[in-house]
Amino acid sequence: MQAKSPEPAIPPPGQDTAAQPLDERTSLIGRLLPFIAHRRLEPGDRLPSERELAERFGVSRGALREAIAVLETLRMVERRPNSGIYLRAVAKQGSLDAIVLQAELGIPLTETEVREVVELRRILELQAVRLAAERRNEADLARLDHALAESERAIGAGENLADLDAAFHLAVVEATGNHVFLRVVNSFYLLSRARRRHYFADGQRAPLSHAQHLAMRDAIAAGEPDRAEAAMGGHLRGVESYWMELLERKARGD
Amino acid sequence: MQAKSPEPAIPPPGQDTAAQPLDERTSLIGRLLPFIAHRRLEPGDRLPSERELAERFGVSRGALREAIAVLETLRMVERRPNSGIYLRAVAKQGSLDAIVLQAELGIPLTETEVREVVELRRILELQAVRLAAERRNEADLARLDHALAESERAIGAGENLADLDAAFHLAVVEATGNHVFLRVVNSFYLLSRARRRHYFADGQRAPLSHAQHLAMRDAIAAGEPDRAEAAMGGHLRGVESYWMELLERKARGD
DNA sequence: ATTACGCTTGTGGTCTGACCAGAATGGTCC
DNA sequence: GGACCATTCTGGTCAGACCACAAGCGTAAT
Fold this sequence. Notes:
2 copies of one chain form a homodimer. With 254 residues, chain A is mostly helical. Helices cover 67% and strands 3% of the residues of chain A.
């Protein structure tokens, strides 16, 4: 598994900007979201009709409808037959994947969202690593070791560790045996992929992270939830401090 | 907020079956999923072409594409231009909302999924109620009290408490101040809506649940995370035993 | 003035048929 | 055997049309 798309391997490994112009073809949804946000529409407000939106964005109704269907499944809008398309209370009703989609479109998380994601990730992963230590089986350990071996190779080759780091963490969650758990955490990793590539662009971080992963693996293999949780806690603290510094820097004016 | 669609209020309050014939118009996705499952396609396998699928399901290519776009955003399939539509490793890569969608389509959760959802819900809500007790503000308490008042009224009127119960629990999560947290938990409640209506169809459960909610509210208002967590833990235990009994009954042959 | 009816308009939902660029394929030629 | 090229098939997109239905509005009857 791990990464699926080829991708330009590693761009100029300096940084990934996370704010690329999104090609020139800017996916339709990527243009719809700013449009909605810019109009300051309140939840419950009606959007322009499909025909009007299609014309305004210079696409056919079919393409527009496809985009709206996606926004509907993410619970951002609601389509009422013979009536219109209505905005929903995104913060309360929107799905986690709505944020994932925005991230994939290059729209950065707000400061609040960053803090919330960091907090929730800690909650989930601390609990996951405990359960993993209690339940891991041979296949789980093999997955962990495979991810670790791949990481070691990648570090030696100077590759960006972002995806392999994710693979390890997801292997931990998978070791809980709870696949719904895995789905949720996977969304979080998709959410922060761009930023995590930036995180690991600093070559110093990869070896430290890897060492902490090794400690975690041992605790899991030994079946010691407390030690595993402590290891994960310390590991996350490092990542979280990165995020917090990022926010402070942005608060000071980038 | 709470419920959005009218719905027949409360069907014959005996049970909700969770396996309705899905009207006659059976949404296209609701037919696509069984088709994929029935063909025993492995992750990575290619689906028939859009044209072929459209013909097979008796719909236009546009309608078919809309459905595929939804499945793609839920990370169940992957569309590769000029190549085909490919199945993804749903259990590992699929989104939480994919399960929500299935539930809304009337497809019941597997036994494994039920156990996983129950476990994850406990993890999330225990942590949520702790944070709520630490951070709640006036607006949060007002939301909790509003939900409680509505519940009291509904119990008196003999209405099904499912949605108001959800409103209370979501108000607890909202009191954490973490909106991403709220999104995740909200998905869980959407996921089990039908079953929860069945749960509360037993009129005896509503008053007990309400009393437990009151205790939780007090602990949150008092700012006592431990007591709040204990209250939530006991409350969840009741719900979980319902689910486990359901599974056992199904295991014995419905 | 008030009510009841019916037409017009606008909406999402759907279908048809067509074109495009790019991959995948398979054959041909060197 | 390997490089090349034409054909086929794919998703992606478009334009134009029809449908059922809700809402609004005007008219007609009360």
